[in-house]
Specification:
Elements (H helix, E strand, L loop, with lengths): L5 E11 L4 E11 L5 H13 L5 E3 L11 E4 L5 E7 L4 H10 L3 E5 L4 H13 L4 E5 L2 H10 L3 E9 L2 E5 L4 E4 L2 E6 L1
Parallel strand pairs: 1-8, 5-6, 6-7
Antiparallel strand pairs: 1-2, 3-4, 4-5, 7-11, 8-9, 9-10
Helix pairs in contact: 1-4
Length: 180
């Protein structure tokens, strides 16, 4: 019998002053049985950083031909492909062929090693950007999450300020490369 995903409900008050975007979001995140809480946390942070009316969580880990997040335009054309983790170059090359914008949000203790080993080859991909979240910051944000959570997420100067009503902290993703 297959294990079912764990469902998280997040009410997010998003205030992104960098993009003049202010939204109240009701999000449902399905955490795959093999997904860590920290990975799901990065999916949520990436969602906040890239929010648009067409941004969606995909089926995720259970589907190899979809990213973690994506957005389509009103004609149904893929606009933005967003990966979380440390994807390999062939997967990212394929994504760059499918979408006019591809982003990666790397995290974990091994993220710097991943970039050191694959960064040069990956950084040459067209319309591609790569970011890295500090592992300690991801662990701290994950501690703020419950199965049902209310968050205030303010984005100022690329830094996310996350508050769950009791605790607050900041997370500043580091830009590894950007090819527009």
């Amino acid at each position: 019998m297959a294990l079912k995903p764990t469902i998280y409900k997040a009410q997010v008050e998003l205030a992104d002053s960098d993009r003049n975007c202010y939204e109240s979001l009701s999000l449902t995140l399905a955490r795959h049985p093999s997904e860590t809480l920290e990975r799901m946390t990065v999916r949520l942070l990436a969602y906040c950083l890239n929010f648009s009316g067409n941004l969606e969580f995909t089926r995720g880990l259970s589907t190899t031909d979809e990213p973690d997040l994506w957005s389509h335009n009103d004609r149904g054309e893929l606009e933005h492909w967003i990966e979380v983790g440390q994807p390999e170059q062939p997967r990212l090359r394929k994504a760059c062929g499918r979408a006019p914008k591809v982003s990666v949000y790397a995290f974990a203790r091994s993220a710097a090693t991943w970039w050191k080993l694959q960064g040069e080859e990956i950084a040459s991909l067209p319309h591609f950007e790569a970011w890295q979240f500090d592992w300690a910051a991801v662990l701290a944000v994950a501690e703020l999450l419950d199965r049902t959570v209310q968050l205030n997420v303010n984005i100022v100067g690329g830094t996310l300020y996350v508050d769950n009503g009791g605790d607050s902290l900041s997370v500043a993703p580091i830009l590894l490369c950007r090819n527009d």
